[in-house]
Amino acid sequence: MNYLKRGLKNTYQAIKKHKLLFFSLIILQIILIVVTSMVTLEYQIKILDNTKGIMEPIEQGNYDSDSIQEGELFTQDTLKIYQSYRSLTKNILHYCLWILGIFIIFNGGLWILVHSLFERKNFHETMHAYLKFFFSTIISIIPFFIIAYYFLKKMVEEISVTNVSQLIQNTSYALIIVYFFLLIAFAFIDVRSWKLFFKRWFKVGIKNIHKSLLVLLINLTLILGSGYLIYRYLYEETFFLMILFSALFVIILVLTKIFWIACLKEIGKN
User: Fold this and answer.
1) How many CA atoms lie within 13 A of 167 on its CB side?
2) What is the tens place of the pLDDT at every residue in 248-268?
């Protein structure tokens, strides 16, 4: 448990030494949340509209087996279903690309700035860190998006409530696993040697996974706890508390990143 104590101490000292940088991290985190929310909202509306264009003709289709055998069509809106399907796949692909771009640009900058709390980087070192962030993201996220896109197409071909529910469940599990190992990689993007980077990634992510999971559990408890406070007062006329708890949530997001890096570096040293 010493790695947790040292991680907490290093987190406090890093913030104390770089208060302005810590404040900048909070601002960048807010920008990341706002931009991601705007893109998600826009494409959520488009995707729901496309899904409606597929489901409504199917729900209103001809399910009379006798009339179908006599030559009547299942639906007159085959073209509409096809167009909605094409639009759905296009919008999902565009949404994934937008999220990936936002993730790499804004989230990448956020993680690199967090590393700067512990050790100042020159331009060359910053570019190396960004390259490691980009590389670890691509080799982890791209296969995930390809698999998720494949399952989505299968779901649309055999569309049902059960298929949708199963897709969401399986995709969520896969995303959690992928993102866990991505977070471990992000803790070591400042390591200069690629060989040492992969060595630390494997050591902390596989050999010391029990320690990494404990740090993750602590962070998730803080994030979910602060998120619950927002949910708790979301529909009540307490604007001040909403602003207060929203600010707390953003600060917690930044603090947990700092604590994560501090603890995992301690694990990697041992």
Assistant:
1) 19
2) 999 999 999 999 999 999 998
